[in-house]
Design brief:
Helix content: 25-40%
Organism: Streptomyces iranensis
Radius of gyration: 16 Å
Protein name: Methyltransferase type 11
InterPro entries: Methyltransf_11, SAM-dependent_MTases_sf
Order of helices and strands: HHHEHEHEEHEHHEE
Strand order of the largest sheet: 3-2-1-4-5-7-6
Mean pLDDT: 91
Largest sheet: 7 strands, mixed
Shape: globular
CATH superfamily: Vaccinia Virus protein VP39
Number of strands: 7
GO biological process, one term: methylation
Keywords: Methyltransferase, Transferase
């Protein structure tokens, strides 16, 4: 079974991992929709909000994000891998959001323009987790929110890939809380169950 890129991999490594899997990605994980919708609901978006799906992949979260912010809101999806965005287009998910090829290390967005960021499965693919989380903080207004999500918990995910959990796992609360704090986020709630991983954070003021 293929492994995900490890911490610190380059943009090219991430593209190399996802490009050959993009066309079949949704068919590999056909039952994740309700988990995405529930995580979006917990993000607490309001009608009219502006939200970014960072590392949107095939865009599975985009319908739920659009429903949460309504027609007057703004939904953006960015991904590093052209093949994943192509798959999102084939699924018609550009009808729910503006899609762009972009790296979360250098987002083409102005400071504080967003109310929230949704990021599914993103943290294990970041080239520089602290700096990349700082970049997400840059584009979110003070008091805005960040959801780091995965449709299965850490233990289930590790088992799926034939691995065991290690103390340096970035998604472990003891690792994630100070990492977020150093990047301008306050971890507000942390859930790690077999059926879901969700860490919700608030953008600190200043």
């Amino acid at each position: 079974m293929p492994h995900e890129p490890s911490r610190g991999n380059s943009a090219a490594d991430v593209r190399d991992f996802f490009t050959p899997r993009a066309a079949e990605w949704d068919r590999r994980f056909p039952d994740d929709g309700p988990a995405y919708a529930a995580a979006v609901a917990d993000l607490g978006l309001r009608p009219g909000d502006a939200v970014l799906d960072a590392g949107c992949g095939t865009g599975r979260a985009l319908p739920a994000l659009r429903a949460a912010v309504g027609p007057e809101g703004t939904v953006l999806g960015v991904d590093l891998t052209p093949a994943m965005l192509d798959a999102a287009l084939r699924e018609g998910r550009d009808g729910f959001a503006g899609l762009a090829l972009a790296d979360v290390a250098r987002l083409p967005l102005r400071d504080g323009c967003l109310d929230a960021v949704f990021a599914a499965g993103l943290i294990s693919h970041l080239s520089d987790p602290r700096e990349n989380l700082c970049e997400l903080a840059r584009v979110v207004r003070p008091g805005g929110r960040l959801a780091l999500f995965h449709p299965v918990g850490r233990a289930a995910f590790a088992a799926r890939h034939g691995r065991t959990l290690t103390p340096d796992d970035l998604r472990a609360e003891a690792q994630l809380r100070p990492l977020l704090a150093g990047a301008g986020w306050r971890l507000e709630s942390y859930t790690d169950e077999d059926t879901r991983f969700l860490a919700l954070s608030v953008r600190e003021v200043g």
